[in-house]
């Protein structure tokens, strides 16, 4: 069955104004729904496990994990919306099968969670950069529980304000797209279309800044590992050509002259940062199909498939923690198989 295409030269024919077009073929929607329904219990269980792990395990109650928990809460809420999105995708009547308020609420929550997730990942990358490059262990700085909790509150407040903004300005609403059969934002005028563009740019900038912070961490770690190797090489040269007294003095000097920043970079910090960067990398991979699809003129079944891939990202983070994060992996095992760890 051929899919209707959109003439993007007309500013009114935007994603927010596709209510009069024929719908995407049912078999495409059924495939997406099947995947979303299968992912729902996995996402709910996995993200709940992350939240419980941080609550019950003292070793996980760190500053960074306040933000990781917030990300899990965001993903958990997103997974709760999957069944309501699925109901719209399966509709055969051209209207949302439940109450319209449910659809509008679901669309608003999904977009708020998208804002919150991208902002939280940015905050996590900034904290990891600050911890490793500024050697904040031993003094407070911005790296305190109260300040990070305040940051979480700010992230949620900003996310909710951004979805309320188009409603207050009267440039759009949240509701049901008849063509795509999904719940989301519907621009009512040209400014509403610009809001869709703003939403994409906001998330893209947040992800790019997140990547920049992790690259800065990587550069810092590689640079100071090289310094450590050079220090040990120098110490070995001194020991090979001097008496035992000079050897002891050189070793002492080498330890004392090591910069505080190097002392702050232990194996665990680097490993945790590396695994959190994997979370960002997976998100970028999940976002890429949607980004490419939005740049291609016309709207077709690829839109709901790429949207599904982005939603699936809410499920994968706990899996990454379970397989890659050293402490989460240990705590997950103790929660799921307590008899084996007793």
TrEMBL record:
Cellular component annotations (GO), alphabetically ordered: plasma membrane
Cellular compartment(s): Cell membrane
Keywords for this protein: Cell membrane, G-protein coupled receptor, Membrane, Receptor, Transducer, Transmembrane, Transmembrane helix
Alphabetized GO MF terms: G protein-coupled receptor activity
SUPFAM superfamilies: Family A G protein-coupled receptor-like
Membrane topology: Multi-pass membrane protein
Top-level taxon of origin: Eukaryota
Statement: the UniProt record of this protein carries the keyword Iron-sulfur: no
Transmembrane portions of the chain: 30-55, 67-89, 101-127, 148-174, 194-217, 276-296, 302-323
A matching Pfam family: 7tm_1
Example GO biological process: G protein-coupled receptor signaling pathway
Residues in G-protein coupled receptors family 1 profile domain copies: 46-321
Cited Gene3D superfamilies: Rhodopsin 7-helix transmembrane proteins (1.20.1070.10)
InterPro entries: GPCR_Rhodpsn, GPCR_Rhodpsn_7TM
PANTHER family reported in the protein's UniProt record: B2 BRADYKININ RECEPTOR/ANGIOTENSIN II RECEPTOR, G-PROTEIN COUPLED RECEPTORS FAMILY 1 PROFILE DOMAIN-CONTAINING PROTEIN
Name recorded for this polypeptide: G-protein coupled receptors family 1 profile domain-containing protein
């Amino acid at each position: 069955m051929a899919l209707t295409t959109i003439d993007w030269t007309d500013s009114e024919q935007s994603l927010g104004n596709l209510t009069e077009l024929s719908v995407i073929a049912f078999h495409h929607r059924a495939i997406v729904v099947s995947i979303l329904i299968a992912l729902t219990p996995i996402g709910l269980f996995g993200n709940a496990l992350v939240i419980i792990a941080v609550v019950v395990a003292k070793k996980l109650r760190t500053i960074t994990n306040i933000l990781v928990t917030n990300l899990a809460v965001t993903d958990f809420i997103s997974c709760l919306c999957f069944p309501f999105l699925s109901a719209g995708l399966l509709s055969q009547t051209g209207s949302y099968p439940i109450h319209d308020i449910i659809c509008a609420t679901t669309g608003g929550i999904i977009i708020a969670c998208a804002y919150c997730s991208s902002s939280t990942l940015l905050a996590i990358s900034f904290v990891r950069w600050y911890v490793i490059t500024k050697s904040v262990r031993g003094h407070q700085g911005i790296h305190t529980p109260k300040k990070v909790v305040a940051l979480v509150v700010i992230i949620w407040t900003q996310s909710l304000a951004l979805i309320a903004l188009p409603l207050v300005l009267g440039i759009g609403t949240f509701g049901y797209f008849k063509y795509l059969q999904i719940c989301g934002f519907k621009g009512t005028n040209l400014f509403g279309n610009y809001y869709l563009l703003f939403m994409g740019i906001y998330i893209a900038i947040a992800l790019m800044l997140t990547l920049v912070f992790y690259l800065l961490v990587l550069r810092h770690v590689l640079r100071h590992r090289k310094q450590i190797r050079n220090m040990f090489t120098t110490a070995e040269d001194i020991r090979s050509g001097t008496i035992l007294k000079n050897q002891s003095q050189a070793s002492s000097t080498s330890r004392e002259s090591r910069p505080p920043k190097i002392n702050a970079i232990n194996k665990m910090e680097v490993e945790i940062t590396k695994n959190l960067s994997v979370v960002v990398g997976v998100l970028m991979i999940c976002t890429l199909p949607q980004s490419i699809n939005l740049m291609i003129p016309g709207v077709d079944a690829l839109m709901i498939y790429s949207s599904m891939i982005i939603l699936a990202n809410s499920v994968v983070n706990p899996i990454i923690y379970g397989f890659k994060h050293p402490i989460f992996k240990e705590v997950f095992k103790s929660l799921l198989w307590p008899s084996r760890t007793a």
